[in-house]
Amino acid sequence: MPEEKENYNYEPFADTEDYKKVNGDIITSWVQILIDRGTEEIDKLLDIATGAGTMVQLFVSHLPAKWKQSLVMCLDQSSEALKLAQVKLETNIDKLKFINSPIEDLDLPDNSIDVAIWGNGIHYLNEESQINSLKRIKKALKPGGLFFFNTAFYEEARPTETLPFYRTQVKNAVQFLREKGIKREKVEKKAEAASFHPKSYYEDLVGKSGFKLVEAQVFAAHLTQEAWEHISAFQQYAAGALHGYPIEFASDAMKNAVGPSILIHGDKDKDGNLFVIRNWLAISAQA
């Protein structure tokens, strides 16, 4: 596989129990859709933006034990990510294929895959790239094949009651930067990942790309301080929250601002752990 120009920045959020819990719930609903439609096996499964393999590992582990093992095709633009995924996945998935390519350049034979999944990545692309990517996915799917994707970066991801947490976090982060003498720079346009689209946008997107919308569900994730620190250190998240500040300092500031903010605005679970809810949108579509 060719080496990408930039190193893969592994996001440890995908290894947290909070991430695995909400995505496990989402995947359970996706698998139930397959079962309800009479699916008895998946011959070929495409996982888009595989990263280190957490999402596809969850998906395969939730499939009925009686189904024969699928050929799992893992696509990512980072060869480094695919190397990490190979180590994680080859212990329990026998048939693996790795494709080092951006989703926008996906080039698989027509009508060759049964199911495609795309976990937590579609929000990074602009609308034109999203439509182009979805059309390529549809072309690769067999007639009636299913496409599942999700995102926690959309307009309704932040319930109204959680907005004080975000405001306090940004306020604390800005104060952190000012104390360090970090000034805001003028930037013309926010990153695409910082442009939150509503649920209806993604529902319409599947239709524009030639898919039939099957289901659009919202899942509430109870994210603890550890999870929020991982999310907040993520560069695209920090760039959206602290637009105009140098990204490396913004990430550090947002991470440091989590503790004081969740202490004020977090709710407690049955074990006394503080959490703030964030909504995940899960879309199911048919080719």
Short description:
The protein is an alpha/beta fold.
Outline the structure in words.
With 287 residues, the chain is α/β, with parallel strands linked by helices. It has one domain (12-286): Vaccinia Virus protein VP39 (Rossmann fold). Helices cover 40% and strands 22% of the residues. The chain contains 10 helices and 8 strands. The chain has helices spanning 17-36, 54-61, 79-89, 127-140, 163-179, 199-208, 225-233, 235-241, 247-256, 258-265, and strands at 44-48, 71-76, 96-100, 113-119, 141-151, 212-224, 267-268, 274-286. Strands 1, 2, 3, 4, 5, 6, 7 and 8 form an 8-stranded mixed β-sheet that branches.
Q: Which percent range describes the beta-strand content?
A: 15-25%
For the record, the CATH architecture stands as 3-Layer(aba) Sandwich
- Principal-axis shape: globular
- Tally the structural domains: 1
Number of helices: 10
Gyration radius, in Å: 19 Å
Indicate the percent of residues in helices.
25-40%
**Structural class per helix/strand content?**
alpha/beta
CATH class: Alpha Beta
Largest sheet: 8 strands, mixed
CATH topology: Rossmann fold
Question: How would the blueprint of this fold be written?
Answer:
Elements: H1 17-36, E1 44-48, H2 54-61, E2 71-76, H3 79-89, E3 96-100, E4 113-119, H4 127-140, E5 141-151, H5 163-179, H6 199-208, E6 212-224, H7 225-233, H8 235-241, H9 247-256, H10 258-265, E7 267-268, E8 274-286
Parallel strand pairs: 1-2, 1-4, 2-3, 4-5
Antiparallel strand pairs: 5-8, 6-8, 7-8
Helix pairs in contact: 1-2, 5-9, 5-10, 7-9, 8-9
